[in-house]
From TrEMBL, chains A, B:
Residues 8-142 form the HTH marR-type domain. This is DNA-binding MarR family transcriptional regulator. InterPro entries: HTH_MarR-typ (IPR000835), MarR/SlyA-like (IPR039422), Tscrpt_reg_MarR-type_CS (IPR023187), WH-like_DNA-bd_sf (IPR036388), WH_DNA-bd_sf (IPR036390). One of its GO terms (molecular function) is DNA-binding transcription factor activity. SMART domains: HTH_MARR.
Length: 152, 152
DNA sequence: CATGATAGTCAATATAATTGACTATATGGC
DNA sequence: GCCATATAGTCAATTATATTGACTATCATG
């Protein structure tokens, strides 16, 4: 790999590879525990649901995929025992998605793997720079939102 | 009013969404110019080749996909007029991939879109924090490399 | 000049995402 | 209350992308 700091590697490429560090670590930890049947975006969904239940429609928007794709993804995760779906009694169009026990176990492993990376990272560069990085990432996300057709 | 979020959004999620800002902006700019037939990882390949030619094997390693997938991706990009392939005369197993004129034009648009985001970002958070963010991302990438089971 | 490693292809298959057409529920104007 | 419209999600078909396995060609080494 080019260890030349002379030119600046494009930020999108850095983001891509940085994200891979988390993805690979999480997948490895999950596979270790027997959770080796989680499809690509499944990590995102499980990670999001670890913070609490969510309506499918929210998952759709966060993933930025078609609702059909999100539906299929959730189908797969339900089929493999990670998620439950239940109709929201307040609005019976709406599906509320939650983690099963298996899903919770997978989420825990995933979170532990993430926190291990986080800790290693903090030891490497310090908490201050990580805060700055978070700020930069949040700004990027805002920039993306402002330039979107859905922001009206 | 300290607007610190009650919970910290996981870094991988931030990375995902931040990257999307670039991806969406680049795709929009390219589509505007008539370059609307670039497959998913094509942006990465074109962006990488904008810095100079590269052997296919390097693209394979950087993308972290199977060589077949990378081959198909390059196939598609050659077919659509973005890339040229030529056999390396020094090592005739090796394919050197370069941008065509159309590919160069697309790369220029893509880079302009990236730099527009970069500029907006810098105006928003300042150069200092961006340097810190780059440092953090580089550290994450290193962590990923060190935790890898050999280089495939 | 045999052996093994590297670079890439071909064919088949699997996985994932999209589009288009549809059902069911809810909301707001009148 | 009732109709029009919007929202939430499904079903089916297709396209796009990636993977695995088996193979060819070239190169490097002893």
């Amino acid at each position: 790999m080019p260890d030349e700091p002379a030119i600046q590697i494009p930020l999108p490429a850095l983001l891509r590879h940085a994200r891979h560090t988390y993805g690979a670590a999480m997948r490895a930890a999950l596979a270790e525990g027997g959770y080796d049947d989680i499809p690509g975006n499944g990590l995102y969904v499980i990670g999001a649901l670890a913070l609490g239940e969510a309506p499918l429609s929210q998952i759709i928007r966060e993933l930025r995929v078609s609702k059909q794709a999100a539906g299929q993804l959730v189908d797969a995760l339900v089929l493999r025992g990670y998620l439950d779906r239940q109709v929201d009694p307040a609005d019976r169009r709406r599906l509320t998605v939650t983690l099963t026990e298996r899903g919770r176990a997978a989420a825990d492993i995933q979170i532990a793997a993430r926190m291990a990376i986080d800790a290693e990272l903090a030891a490497w560069v310090g908490a201050e720079k990580i805060r700055h990085a978070r700020e930069v990432l949040a700004a990027l996300i805002d920039i993306g939102r402002s330039g979107e057709p859905g922001s009206d």
